[in-house]
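Example record for the data management plan.
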Amino acid sequence: MATLTLPQQASIAASSILGKNSRRCRQSSPRMQVSARAAMRSSPDSRAVPALQAAAAFAIAGALQISAVPVLPANANEFSVLANGPPTESHLVDDAGVVSRVNKSDIKNLLTDLEERKGFHIDIVTLRKLTSKADAFEFADQLLEKWYPTVEVGNNKGLVLLVTTQKEGAVTGGPEFTKVVGDQVLEAVVSENLPVLATDEKYNEALYSTCNRLIAAIDGLPDPGGPKFQENKRESNFKTKKETEEKRGQFTTVVVGLLVIAFVVPMLQYFAYVRK
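Corresponding structural encoding:
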C-alpha cells in the first residue's frame, strides 16, 4: 500500500468533509436543491467556495506538518559528535565553529606527520557548551571510549577537548599515549594552554599550542611551555578599597554641598523678601 504525503492526506480529509455536505444536499428535496443552486448563482460569496476549500486543505496540511516535526534534544551537538565517530583525515571536529581554515590545515599537517612518524593518533574536538556531563574530562573520557571501545584500538589514541562557553578543556587518551606524554605535560596543557587562551577567546592559538606541546612530549623534546595566566589576565573593572573610599569621600562632599544650596539659598531669599 502506497504511503500518502501530508498534502495528499489533507486534500483527502478536506474532500471527505465537503463530500458529506454535498451528499446531504443531494438527499434534500428537488425544490430545495433548485433554490440552493439559484442562491449560489445569485450570491457573490459563492465564488469564494473553491478558495475556502483550498484554504481548508492547506490548513489541515499545515497542522499535520507541524505535528510531524520531531523534537530535537537540547544537547543535540554532543550526541551528534558521539554518534558520528572520529574524524578520518582532518583530526578535527570543530562543532563550536571557532577554528579558522588556515589553522585546520596546520593542525591536520602536524597531527598527520606525528601519526606517520610515531604511530600516535590525536583527535581535536571543540564544543560550544556541555549539558549532558558535569565537566570536560567526563565527556572526553566518554567520547574516547565511544570512538575507541577497546584498549587495543585506543591504546595510542589521544583526545583534546575544548569547550568554548565554559572556557575549559581536557586531554585524555589510551594507556600508551598518557604514558609517553606524561602527567606533568597533560596537567600543564589543561591548566595553561586551553583555559588561559580560551579566556581571551584565542581558540586557534590554544589548540595549535596544545598540539605542539603534546608532540614535543611524544618526540622527547624539551617542553616549550604554555602561556602564563598573569600575562593573559584581563584588567579588572572593579575598584580597589582605597579607590572606593576616595570616591566615596568626594561623593559625600558633593551631596552635602547640594543639600546646603537646596535649603539655605531658599531660606535666605525668603528672609530677604520678608524684610522688604
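Summary line stored alongside the record: The beta strands are 92-94, 121-127, 157-163, 168-173.
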